Amino acid sequence: MKTYQIAVLAGDGIGPEIIAATLPILRAAAHKFGFRLVFEEALVGGAAIDAAGKALPEETLTVCRNSQAILFGAVGGPQWEALPPEKQPERAALLPLRRTFGLYANLRPITCYPELLSASPLKAEIARGVDLLVVRELTGGLYFGQPKGTVMTDRGERAIDTLVYETAEIERVARVAFEAARARKQFVTLVDKANVLESSLLWRKTVRRIASEYADVQLGFLYVDNAAMQLIRQPRQFDVLLCENLFGDILSDEAAAICGSLGMLPSASLGKARFGLYEPAGGSAPDIAGKGIANPSAQILCAALLLRYSLGEEKAALAIESAFRAALSDGFRTPDIASDGGKTVGTEAFAQAILDRLENP
Ligand code: IPM
Ligand code: MG
Question: Which of 45, 145, 215, 291 could be bridged to 89 by S-S, CB 3.0 to 4.6 A?
């Protein structure tokens, strides 16, 4: 039987509960489609700081290296905010993981489900039918650019982040966006700030050149401030949004909220090969952790993306996605998406509703 090893990094906050809700669904999908998944759990983030003294222990990296993919929960929380910035879970675990494994392309599919239109902060007629993909550059830009840091000067402190991109970094993620657009509505919008930023000029020039290899895909340009506005004004105009690292971080939260909840947004971080890291975009949500009310949708949809992109198990991915849709249309809701008065349930019962529909479609 085909066997795959998956590194499971639950982390902090709601991470462990939404991961626990997801693993039985992955197991059931594997059983149904005739392959085997071996889950190897490892410490990450604040949990790893508390247990092992650092956010990304060497054993965890080894587990990841021996796996086909990483299923990631979330990291961070108020307990670790007093640590020096470079030791905090986000900067000491998540960013190095992305960088170590060369996961330069972050895919965030954003869908407004008809069942959840009333959970959108926008009018239903604006949110209806939104289906877009944010392709976010993930290993460059302000997150990693050097120099970075804070120094003392005679006028006080001076803090530096560097926004830097090279042609090759733009080319490879642009290709991901164009390939994705080919399988969708053939429209890429590059989001930048080319009226001000030098790096944006390089993005425009490079993406224009890559676009000439994809005659079937249309290319548009938007300044990021305009893109933020267009997203709430007329989000249906978009298909694929190609963004540098920070712009993609910001716009993907906005786009997710338009579709009802950040708790619905999965993400796939991919590199040159099939290996990937799959992480809900919503974070650790410490305010609701441990209450059993977190929405596990993003994590469960991450599991589907993992099956699709890293394992090539497309049928199993589709089966999870359609079981998820079925649970929504049968009225199951976690509190964050419960504005239409459906059956409001907790994390476990919501995941169980999906599991039932996967096993008996
Ligand atoms: C995300 C998150 C992270 C990011 C944080 C936790 C570092 O917001 O994945 O969108 O900014 O990339
Ligand atoms: Mg973010």
Answer: 45
